[in-house]
Design goal:
This protein is an all-alpha fold and 202 residues long. It folds into 2 domains: 62 residues; 118 residues, no CATH class. The protein is built from 8 helices and no strands. The longest helix has 35 residues. The radius of gyration is 29 Å and the shape is elongated. It starts with 6 loop residues before the first helix and ends with a helix.
Length: 202
Amino acid sequence: MLKKPGLEELVRELEKDYARWEQVYMAGSKDPFWPDGVNANLCRNHILCGKRRIRELYPDAEMPEIYYRPLPQELPAEYMARKEELRSAALRSYTRYISDENFCFIRNHVERIPETDALRGILDALLARADVLKNAVLSGDYVAMRRYVPFPVSWTVKMKKKQKETQDILSYHSQAAGCSDKTRAKASGGRQPIEECGRTGL
């Protein structure tokens, strides 16, 4: 059988729920998937349940002061705190993404890497961060913006590393293509294939 919680313990839990609601309402939460309104209303439900538990478990006791504290307002589910601040931060992050020289190099050369190469999937995912953030700003999706704010310092280091890997693999494919061309030319007595001649204008 579960031990009955003390009245002081229930009061402390209720105080935490009120403080949590205030925090979400004023500063927002860090939830990457749900708006602040959903989280604030969840805190509100906890407050309701906390008061009910006090009344049910201690019906004959003098109700503590917090029991009579007004219930926080119910918010629209889509409510988000500090919208403008969040949007400004998202714009700054997006600008840093697209201004990064390694990002620009990868974006300009990623199509040259075969989709079957494992690196291609990694690069596509890294580049997608900027696209997702841009779409979030344009559509007013503040929850999505929050997932990419603040700008991750580790991202710059990662992009520099991937830029080097991109250069290496492009060089590899370029050399492989050159070797293949030489092999075909040798097999044909030095003549270029018809389709290649057409492409080069010969």
